[in-house]
Design brief:
heterodimer, A: 224 residues, mainly beta, 6-stranded mixed sheet, 6-stranded antiparallel sheet, 1 helix, globular, B: 285 residues, two-stranded antiparallel ribbon, 6% helix
Amino acid sequence: MRAVAAEDLGRIALGGLLLALTAGCGDGGAAPADASDPDGSAPQTDGRPLEDAAPPVDANDSGAVPDAGTPPGCDGPLEVGRCVDARSGMPCTGFADEEPTFEPLPEGTSLPFVRGPQGSSMFVLAARGRGFEPGDPEQPIGPRSPRLEARLFAPDGELVSLLRERAAFEEDPTSPGRYFDASMFLVVDGPCPAVPLLRARVELRDVEGRRMCGEASFQPDCGG
Amino acid sequence: MLHRLPTAYALACVLLLGCSTGPTDGDGGRADAASEAGPDATAPGPDGSPQDAEADRTGPGPEDASADGGSPDGAPGGFRCPSGGVRGPGRHRLFVQGREAPPLPNGRWPLLHVWRDDGGDAELCDDTVFVDDANGNGRWDPGEEPRPLGPPGIVHGEHFLVGAGSYAEFEAVLCDDITGSVVLYIPNFDQEGSEALHELLVVHPEDGDREEVIATAVDDEPGFSGYNPFVRVLEGEDPAAHPGDLLVLRSTNLSGVAFSVMVWRPPSEYESWVVVEVPDASSGG
């Protein structure tokens, strides 16, 4: 193994600067010329500083999703929350006997780092929104189910976790027309991130090509 | 794919190895991979034949002045085949990059394809080098064990697919059309009830990222199989691939039971790879 040469470091720094300057939400810094690709592109690769995060979402029981500010390049807002077992009220861990449901995630809320049934350590998030094709819960990974991408960033912009999945959204029984997915397992390789705050950025792309986006920040709870 | 990007971004991408498959120092994916990688993958293989990282390339070398390396192939629009792109008649072995490498901006990981400096395929595409050719036919056949060889730029890390519907994608740039003859060799961690769908696709960026399925296979082999590979030799649909199209391997967890796609560094017989074939021009392909 050879040490990274000084010239490599210079190139790396230049690359990082160029990457930061050209990255953009939704279409991303590496988006192809045709920005309407349904599956190929993804949200921007690196996290912006937390100061640029979207304002927190304050959902209300009326079912209306407040205007959280749709990020550029997106067709509508997606509310990012946490997963809670509807029976116990406890944070979800991914075990089969849980009844996952969406719960809002106010800015700075603590979210536990849990170990799932497969032994992976993760944060379990949820998302909900309106105005997109939710898919068929009877065929959760069928062709009409939307694709979801969720990225977790540390304060320095480091990508901590990436989840890509195809998932059907369930209709919120308390708010017709609003749909949620409460089983988003963001696996983290290695120990619980020792940072004060993590930012989650979630993008949904439905079968019609609609792009719904949302963000949330939380404090990782690494307690035993 | 690189040729489609703004030049500045392509340069950044190449330098950070987010869109290509690694510099000539043998470390792909991250600039700091050298300090974290295990034993050098370029150590002599078990048969004593050297793997020379200086001769094998998975990405542009320091001498490349262009943002996307490669060479123009005269295709419409002046497409430049990026280093590591799939080109030239014959079979090409493409290795899944490990999870510890950062994903590409589009959320995929690269499929690593090694060239020599002269632009030809490196030894990893040569079945007589890569596998124990038990039957001596010069071609890998199911049951023949790969040698612990891998691209110099490979980074460690299995891809955990957690929850039903979770998937990981891996891509390579196609510089030539390919046939429907493909091989899937996917060591994996699974448990009783694991079920995974592997899809090999051509994605057409010029056509709104339209997906053209070459072949699919479901791994529902019962029980816990350790890291034993899921192996399929498939005669799929012959795609209409053009230079600049993407070959994509998508692995999806269908059942939600534990499943992961294995990638190791230092390279072992548990690398995940696919084989595709570029037809001989004389065959009209």
